[in-house]
Amino acid sequence: MRVVMFTHAADPADALPAASFLDATVTCLPPLPSNYGAVDDADAVLIDTRADLTRARALCQLLSGPMECGPILLVVDDGGAAALQDDWGASDFVMAGASPAELAARLRMLRRAAPPSQAPREDRLEVGDLVIDVTAYTARIHGEILDLTYKEFELLKFMAINQGRVLTRETLLDEVWGQDYIGGARTVDVHVRRLRAKLGTEYDQFIGTVRNVGYRLDAPGII
């Protein structure tokens, strides 16, 4: 189970001590727009409301509305609980001092109540641990955003759309840079090398080289 917690605390235990005892991977992130995409592959989302109720409400409405994320559990204190309304869009709430057993039970109930998985979103591409959000122009590995240029993103996106297919350098030039581009195959090689560097040593094998032909994007172990 993967849980994302939005909080200004550096450690989940500082915001919700019971989170330290969950049999789950808890990713703790500050509530910044650049981090919102991390909810895409999360089983549940926790929002710490105690620092700013107004901003927590706006974030909850965004995640439950336009972003259509999974179940949202609000972390509240006594004052925050009294301020909760239906228009927040949250699935449930939990007191900051809740026991590990209560927190685990609430998360289990939320997962059971969640609607069944829908068809894959057309604006989201997945290749192993790599998740590309086409509309937000972001690419993530394990929730961490890759710092890509526009052309690097477009190249990665096109290869992901054609996952498993061998793409020639000429095809990549035409589709990503346009048929009027006067550069050569070297341009593709340079951008692929930069992409591999940004993917890191653990994931650079996503982009495989097909000698004398071009490149293919696939999850490691398949290439």
UniProtKB/TrEMBL annotation:
Pfam families, A to Z: GlnR_1st, Trans_reg_C
List the GO terms this entry assigns under cellular component, sorted alphabetically.
cytosol; protein-DNA complex
Q: Per the database entry, where does the chain bind DNA?
A: 122-219
Annotated GO MF terms: phosphorelay response regulator activity; transcription cis-regulatory region binding
Q: Which UniProt keywords apply?
A: Activator, DNA-binding, Phosphoprotein, Transcription, Transcription regulation, Two-component regulatory system
A GO term (biological process) for this protein? regulation of DNA-templated transcription
Q: Which InterPro entries match?
A: GlnR_N, OmpR/PhoB-type_DNA-bd, Sig_transdc_resp-reg_C-effctor, WalR-like, WH-like_DNA-bd_sf
What species is this protein from?
Actinomyces gaoshouyii
What is the name of the protein in this document? Transcriptional regulator
| Positions of the OmpR/PhoB-type domain | 122-219
